[in-house]
């Protein structure tokens, strides 16, 4: 009697257990889990016929509100068409969430698969090898992200804020071009807060969906009567540029020490290494965006102007 080795049995078992998902009549095989978040997971999938690979974002919905948030993400993905913003290939919703009986549904988003992963992954490798990015490469990557935000912040129908801009939400193409992704936190860029209830609601949403070490100070303690605009993304953009230089947000370091991120932000102190390969000009660009008072913070077109000026300086040094 022939017997199978344990590794063969396990391999065959995995093959038999492989899941197939149907998205609007198109079938994909699930290959592996790429990432897991608090509200969703991302899997590597393969078209059963063409064998082309994609990323599948699954959003588990436990309530009607969750379903609406998922539909909002799909809507933003369909609306935002830019070379530096992730493309939605297909989407569907299966099942129905009911807040009474606590059943669940799932939203499925088929997205391009970027085998290089995210900017966070890329910077982690550079950090491990203690290799700084070249300043021209930093500016090239940063400019692409700025162009994506410029498009979102200046839409004809009104600005849209990303609200969770960070290195983990930027994919990299084979050519290392940045692609802004994860539009689940997107919202209208300008919001009028009228009273404590509005303020608490936004503060709770920000705490849940906006990464702490990239979150703008005004989202930690939302005032009862104020206007929150798209410049919350500019603060995050400043943190992201710092990470392009030194691999992490300036407030990741604070968080890792166990200190208060919010207190570090409102102190206005950002630590730059004494021994560094980078110039004061690029540090000044970071601080240009990290203004505690949002009314003093630049809009994205002003940031792009400063970046273009810095590019010209670099060209003149060649």
UniProtKB/TrEMBL annotation:
The protein's matches in SMART domains, at most eight in alphabetical order, are given as: S_TKc (SM00220)
Tell me the leader sequence span.
1-18
EC number from the UniProt entry:
2.7.11.1
- Residues in coiled coil: none
Pfam families on file: Pkinase
One molecular function GO term is: protein serine/threonine kinase activity
Start and end of every Protein kinase domain? 28-311
Q: Which residues bind ATP?
A: 57
Q: Which reaction does it catalyse?
A: L-threonyl-[protein] + ATP = O-phospho-L-threonyl-[protein] + ADP + H(+); L-seryl-[protein] + ATP = O-phospho-L-seryl-[protein] + ADP + H(+)
Membrane-spanning segments: none
User: What's in the keyword line of the UniProt record?
Assistant: ATP-binding, Kinase, Nucleotide-binding, Serine/threonine-protein kinase, Signal, Transferase
Similarity section: Belongs to the protein kinase superfamily.
- What PANTHER family does the record point to? SERINE/THREONINE-PROTEIN KINASE 16, SERINE_THREONINE-PROTEIN KINASE 16
Q: What is this protein called?
A: non-specific serine/threonine protein kinase
Q: What is the organism of origin for this protein?
A: Hypothenemus hampei (Coffee berry borer)
